[in-house]
Amino acid sequence: MEFMDKSFSEAIINGNNQSIAKLVPEGSEINKCFHGEFKIKSKSKKNVFPFITDPTPIVLCILCEQSQTLKYLLEKYKVDLFQYVGEWAPIHYACCTESYECLAIMLKNKSFQQKIDIPILSSINETNDFKTTALHVAVTNKRYSQVILLTQNLIYAKATTALEFLNQNIPTISHIDQKSMSGNTALHIAVYLKDLEMCKILISGEANPNIENDENISPLAFAKNHNYSEILSVLRNNLLYSRDYLLQKYFSKEFLQEYKIDCDVPIENQLKAKFEDLQSEIIDISAQLSQLESKL
């Protein structure tokens, strides 16, 4: 078993899907943690976590930025996308890596999307609604693409249940004004970090600059008190980026094509197109059911 774990973990780190297929039978549950400390070898070579202790296969895959292997694991095996490793769930790890692709892949899962604000364990507080979410992690780590994925209606999830099927054209986004364990919104954090670009992205996602933290200070007031003139101008005048600008700046053409995200098409038209596709799927399914019934 130890040899298999080592071979399996090495296959994940190196993104070797063929080796994984030979080692682990299709349909297996792969949520058991590996044992020991693993050196992270991310494809971008920018490691927020140099090492990880006792990771699940999914978390190891995310930290190594092996997006194609993550997609393979989700397609072939029984995977728990909400299993914590330490204090963090997979979404939190995906929001601190250089690559945004693993987060996008997981957002294709409707159940995952509906729990987009799953908290870091240590931030859960019974006395208030404060909790640290993936959005706070992404903002703190200056992961602009991940913040856009979390706060814009971009990824249409694949349904796995009848109810999800009916609602699959309604993307779920992160609560942009959620207060973290420390009582700050994502916009508070961006202003504290003096991150002008992040402030613009969050304002584009309709973040509220007037919400006060637990010290009764709003992002707008903090920017004013510290004379952050550029940020203050953005917050006061609601200077936001267009959706097309964000897509073209932070995502590759290949990514936009794969996820069928159009830069120059209004979101209403995209929803209409998705609905028409859904109607076609229903017609096809009805035809298949009729054929089956005729054979009974």
From TrEMBL:
This is Uncharacterized protein. Residues 268-295 form a coiled coil. Keywords: ANK repeat, Coiled coil. The keyword Zinc does not apply. It comes from Trichomonas vaginalis (strain ATCC PRA-98 / G3). SMART domains: ANK. Pfam families: Ank, Ank_2. ANK repeats lie at residues 182-214. SUPFAM superfamilies: Ankyrin repeat.
